[in-house]
């Protein structure tokens, strides 16, 4: 059933459903005083919701124009229900920490894309190197083909805009100022394609004309958009030469005829006919208009040959470029943001599982993953009063000295701290629970221990990952995030996968074992912290013993060959001696020196795991830095639009928390928003709804508590206002997909949804 509403996007059926308790404000439409009160109420409750980007809440923009209220993140802390004496400090700490994480992420993404951009720029610079040497036969053949870069980006489409933005900037800084990026939705046919191409190309040129001539030029572009006009424009520009910005690093020889780079962001979405026509036309003008194409491909390079016939694809000189896999990108992001002591904020296993599941099963978007991490950070600082200590260790120790009485009580109420106190002697228990000075000193010590725990934890985690990432069938996972999740969940050594991994480690060859040990030495040496310095020395001793085994074996082989070199034997005696040696080894079961040393290495790694890879829940004060509210995060990120819509429209008190909106089941309060009244009335109707009856019922509910006025003119004005409100409510319900117009009956609409949620 085709409709002109957003019903397809709103009604997502889930296998199980639960009520989402998300506070969302909707301003009232009553008198001025009530509007001011509602606005204040809005500012208090919107803060928490403003940072959440749940698509299921988009319908609220149809309920009331709430967009005019802008609520900064600061109000999220200072005006929310969890307001405390340190709200400002917590907000500043959150803001500083997020800015550090954001800058680290941006720098990391720039480094990850550097190799791809460098190879692309090198390809672009070589593509038209022979543009002026057209007398050469090879150049003449080359000028008949359009240089084309097929950029394979993967299915994480939401990240493509950022990549293309960075790529455009890199090309403009290093190759040519003439860069145009087009999307398929803007180019339904060749006419619009050329119009967009001409408009963006002339705008990106550094030689901009006067403003009074610009409007005339734009109209001329739209009426005269062809390759001939583009060729004439290019010749005029290259004769005068574009103004080169000072930051460009392009030599003067390259600016004589800079190529024109056209980026098709979503190549799969372009019309086949549009692509064919443009490529054929451009190839005929290539000797005058040096064009380079960049195809943004989300799926596979085979799509080029599916969209373009051989006669057209033969006009392209295609070279493939592969971007970094989004899974590898995610692993790098986790390694830099979470598996480090640079940033104190951490997330527990359930929160990490929510974020990775959304990434792996929904969009593969690194940007959305980072936004989810930001939301986790924001929720942690908002919901945890002791998050004021979630900063670097030196600053946290200073802040502990200025903790208030209430904050000290918050520390005493922490489950991890209570377990820690129960293990202490009775005298120390009394001191920790009654003396603030002793409590602050102990808190400083515990936070320092927590920092040391994280340093050792991540070193041993990387060491264990080096051992298990190459095992058959990957019992502990191939990626370090899988191993990290398993270690966060419980004691890893109690799992069956860990036992099978140790069995496989006891079967490793010497070369494999030595390679892994060298990687572990690099991990420990790369760390600035020296808590596990003795561990690195122990691993180096194991490596030295393995090398000594090689030297001893060579000496034995040399002596054996000298003693047995004069002996002659036939095949029968050789088989007999081999069988005797096999039987002797089976009966004696004596381990070789290598097997003994390998067993020592495996036992040593096992002891490290049991000592340092304890779950975070075992550490006192882990609640200060760990965010564990996976349920809250899932509510914000996993949209359930149908449930949310029904709850908001059927029971507006659930979100607004306005006592006046409370009503018994089956009753319709007349002060509810118009769309809620219309929605509850439409639930009582059958498949077809009579608009006249619906309008009369709406007017009856709205005017239920109002006094009837004898003035006819006032009554008519009131009826017109009520009618306008009803029309707006019906239009909003149609937009949300609950009803649609029908031709079966006059003055009727068809209902599209049935039952509850």
Mean pLDDT: 80
Distance N to C terminus = 21 Å
How much of the polypeptide forms β-strand, as a percent range?
5-15%
The side-by-side strand order for the widest beta sheet comes to 2-3-4-1-5
Radius of gyration: 35 Å
- Per DSSP E runs of 2 or more residues, the count of β-strands stands at 10
SS class:
mainly alpha
> Please, how many helices?
33
Fraction of residues in H or I helices? 55-70%
Identify the overall geometry.
globular
Q: Biggest sheet, in brief?
A: 5 strands, parallel
Describe the protein's architecture and organization.
By secondary structure, this protein is mainly α. Helix content is 59%, strand content 6%. The protein is built from 33 helices and ten strands. The strands form three sheets. The protein has a five-stranded parallel beta sheet, sandwiched between helices. Strands 8-10-9 form a three-stranded antiparallel beta sheet. A two-stranded parallel sheet has the order 6-7. The protein is globular and about 105 Å long. Mean pLDDT is 80; it is low at 1-71, 207-216, 243-254 and 557-567.
């Amino acid at each position: 059933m085709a409709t002109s509403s957003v019903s397809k996007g709103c009604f997502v059926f889930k296998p199980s459903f639960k009520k989402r308790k998300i506070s969302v404000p909707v301003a009232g439409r009553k008198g001025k005083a009530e509007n001011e009160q509602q606005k204040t109420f809005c500012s208090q409750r919107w803060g928490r919701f403003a940072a959440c980007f749940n698509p299921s809440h988009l319908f609220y923009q149809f309920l009331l124009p709430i967009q005019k209220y802008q609520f900064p993140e600061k109000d999220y802390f200072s005006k929310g229900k969890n307001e405390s004496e340190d709200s400002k400090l917590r907000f500043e700490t959150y803001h500083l920490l997020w800015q550090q994480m954001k800058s680290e992420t941006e720098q990391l993404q720039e480094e990850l894309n550097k190799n791809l951009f460098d190879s692309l720029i090198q390809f672009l610079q070589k593509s038209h190197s022979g543009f002026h040497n057209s007398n050469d036969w090879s150049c003449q053949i080359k000028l008949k083909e359009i240089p084309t870069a097929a950029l394979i980006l993967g299915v994480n489409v939401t990240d493509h805009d950022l990549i293309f933005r960075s790529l455009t900037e890199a090309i403009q800084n290093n190759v040519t100022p003439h860069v145009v990026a087009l999307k398929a939705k803007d180019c339904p046919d060749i006419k619009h394609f050329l119009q967009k191409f001409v408009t963006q190309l002339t705008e990106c040129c550094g030689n901009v004309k006067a403003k009074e001539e610009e409007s005339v030029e734009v109209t001329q572009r739209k009426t005269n958009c062809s390759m001939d006009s583009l060729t004439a424009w290019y010749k005029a520009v290259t004769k005068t030469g574009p103004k080169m910005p000072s930051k460009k690093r392009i030599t003067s020889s390259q600016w004589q005829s800079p190529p024109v780079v056209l980026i098709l962001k979503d190549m799969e979405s372009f019309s086949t006919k549009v692509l064919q026509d443009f490529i054929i036309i451009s190839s005929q003008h290539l000797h005058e208009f040096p064009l380079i194409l960049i195809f943004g491909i989300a799926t596979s390079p085979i799509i080029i040959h599916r969209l373009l016939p051989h006669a057209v694809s033969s006009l392209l000189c295609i070279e493939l470029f592969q971007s970094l896999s989004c899974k590898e990108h995610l692993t790098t992001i986790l390694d830099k943001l979470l598996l480090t002591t640079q940033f104190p904020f951490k997330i527990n296993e359930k929160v990490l599982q929510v974020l990775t599941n959304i990434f792996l099963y929904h969009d593969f978007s690194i940007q959305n993953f980072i936004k989810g991490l930001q939301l986790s950070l924001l929720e942690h600082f908002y919901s945890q009063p002791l998050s004021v200590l979630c900063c670097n260790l030196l600053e946290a120790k200073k802040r502990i000295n200025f903790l208030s009485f209430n904050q000290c009580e918050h520390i005493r109420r922490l489950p991890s701290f209570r377990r820690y106190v129960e293990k202490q002697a009775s005298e120390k228990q009394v001191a920790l629970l009654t003396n603030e000075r002793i409590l602050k000193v102990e808190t400083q010590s515990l936070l320092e221990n927590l920092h040391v725990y994280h340093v050792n934890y991540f070193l041993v985690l990387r060491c264990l990952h080096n051992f298990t990432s190459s095992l058959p069938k990957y019992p502990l996972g191939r990626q370090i995030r899988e191993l990290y999740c398993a270690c966060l969940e419980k004691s890893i050594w109690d799992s069956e996968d860990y036992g099978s991994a140790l069995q496989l480690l006891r079967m490793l060859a010497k070369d494999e074992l030595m390679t892994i040990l060298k990687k572990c030495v690099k991990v420990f040496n790369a760390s600035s912290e020296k808590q596990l310095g003795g561990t690195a020395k122990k691993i180096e001793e194991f490596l030295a013993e393995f090398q000594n085994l090689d030297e001893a074996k060579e000496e034995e082989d040399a002596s054996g060959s000298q003693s047995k070199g004069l002996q002659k034997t036939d095949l029968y005696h050789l088989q007999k001696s081999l069988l005797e040696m096999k039987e002797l080894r089976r009966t004696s079961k004596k381990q070789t020196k290598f097997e003994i040393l390998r067993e020592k290495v495996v036992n040593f790694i096992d002891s490290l795991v049991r000592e340092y890879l304890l779950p975070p829940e075992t550490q006192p004060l882990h609640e200060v830095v760990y965010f564990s509210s996976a349920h809250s995060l899932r509510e914000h990120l996993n949209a359930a639009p149908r449930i949310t819509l029904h709850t908001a429209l059927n029971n507006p008190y659930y979100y607004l928390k306005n006592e006046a909106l409370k009503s018994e089941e089956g009753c319709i309060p007349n002060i509810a928003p118009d769309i809620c009244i219309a929605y509850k009335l439409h639930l009582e109707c059958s498949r077809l709804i009579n608009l006249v009856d619906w309008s009369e019922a709406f007017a009856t509910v709205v005017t239920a508590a109002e006094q009837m006025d004898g003035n006819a003119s006032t009554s008519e004005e009131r009826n017109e206002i009520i009618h306008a409100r009803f029309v707006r409510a019906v239009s909003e319900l149609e937009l949300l997909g609950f009803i649609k117009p029908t031709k079966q009956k006059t003055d009727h609409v068809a209902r599209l949804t049935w039952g509850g949620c």
